[in-house]
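step=predict obj=Cytochrome P450 n=415
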Amino acid sequence: MGVITTPSFDRRASASLFSRLRTARGQADPFPIYEELLSRGDVSLAPWGGTLVTSFALCDQVLRSRDWLEPDKRWRERQGSGTRWNASSSREMSNTLAALNPPDHTRVRRAAGTFDRAAVERIGQTVTRATDQLLDSLAERLREGEADFVSLVGDELPVATIGDWLGIPSADWPRLRQLTHDQVFTQELLPSASQLAGSDAATAELRAYFMALVSDRRAHPGEDPVSRWIETWDALEPDRDAADEAVYFLVLFVLLAALETTSTLLTTMTLLLVESPERWDMVADHPDLVPAFIEETLRYDPPTHVISRIAGEDCVLGGLEIRKDEMVHLMVGAAHRDPAKHVDPHRFDPLRKPAHLAFSGGIHYCLGAPLARLEAQILLRGLIRRLPRLTLVRRPTMAPRVAFRRLLNLDVAVA
Ligand code: HEM
């Protein structure tokens, strides 16, 4: 394939698309904008430098290839002290699993372990109990009129699940959830200075909280994952302070990775369910469609719309020359609507063959995917089994973000 040296899609054109993407309207429905991006080719130039990748095949290829790297600590340092990459929150994130490259990544990922079937079954009991309680409160509120699904259920179930698993006191859950909302901006595509400052402050508070948690577990070990990680790291790392720090980065990242993403999956899934009576009836009449409904939600509107990587070497991607160290943004939300991958991509169809990159791919494939799926399945089964058909009262408002989707409200009522 020839190399494009003067891309037909210039940075000015993509700047105009991105300014639309950053409006409330664009965030409520980014898909027409993604369609324009897709129509311009598999790759295009980002307004701020770097490259946008929109085709499913190329996003998949980049995620699976060892030639593409995470923006790690050394890369962030090279960007210079005045840049967002050297904000204190970004430097802190550079020590967490998803910002490591091999061989560091291999070592830390191995130490993190996985959710095996037995662990998922154990956590499933917590999720079932929490879901029952949350649906009780939703049902009670619905008897009086409309109810906000986000505050009653969508934001609560992930923190109850991960909080219980990590052994975090429930009194601390609301604060941790708020800090997570503030922290995410350092991982956003284009954070403003004030969003970055909020993220820096949240990160500092999270560090203090989780370092204290780790030292408490060292003093009083239990059956929880934090105590297990301390044991694992003590065997890997002779320096106790370094071991504690490694465990802290893992706990921090697990919390950040687990909360908002899962809330967004649960809420988007419920939005797709309540906005269409046919969909509600279809799943209620065929509960065996629950897993497929969730996979299609993850394709149709995934919680994470953008995943970024750095070129390990000079290369050509989609006909475009990319230099070593340059960043590519995998526009996963757009790639999921790529007509070359999915027929009639804008149609929500749980019966289609599932294929999505919502949990990434390759060596960074999401460690928590079984847990997120478990929560979504238990909740969806509970909704259709326990409640009469619900309807959407008004369109939800989206948080002002491009990469990490978040519904601020989801107002529902009995149909
Ligand atoms: C619907 C919910 C979730 C979504 C959409 C999601 C999405 C993702 C994505 C896209 C990545 C990869 C980022 C990259 O490639 O740079 C990732 C990594 C990760 N996720 Fe999730 N996640 C979800 C839930 C969870 C949960 C519940 C946990 C923990 C219990 C979790 C833990 C992790 C961890 C530890 C990684 C880092 C893996 C690595 O870099 O090796 N995630 N997730």
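step=describe
Residues 71 and 100 are 8 Å apart (CA to CA).
step=end
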